[in-house]
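Researcher: Structure prediction, please.
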Amino acid sequence: MIIGISGKMQSGKNTVASIINQLTNNMFVEKAFADKLKECISIITGIPRLDLEKEEVKNSYLPNEWNRVESMTVRTLLQEFGTEVGRQIHPNFWINALFSNYKPYYNSLEFNNPLDAVEHGRVNILIGSLQMFVFLMN
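Model: Predicted structure follows.
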């Protein structure tokens, strides 16, 4: 079973995921579309993967060798790499990357939005508007 939780930044998606996991005796694994993106950025920049979860790291400026005209934050690099690199290759680049390790739950149909990636028989929990996702997978 896949449970998709969506909502704006800081809307409580991870909190809801944690509560569901507690209520189900940790039967799910938490995954997000940004997981693979953050793994890529960690490899490219040398920033430890877990540090990319920290707001102070995301808001920090990259060293000068990463700057173009003006200083760039780690958050900007994540956003631009996610859209300019990933989505230029394929509109569902990060959806495909997330589900690449979960073939039993995924088929290769194109998705108009991330909610379409959670197919029939899964549970979708919407928190506010549809901007970011957390998936619980067992």
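Model: Confidence is low (pLDDT under 50) at residues 104-111.
Researcher: Thanks, that helps.
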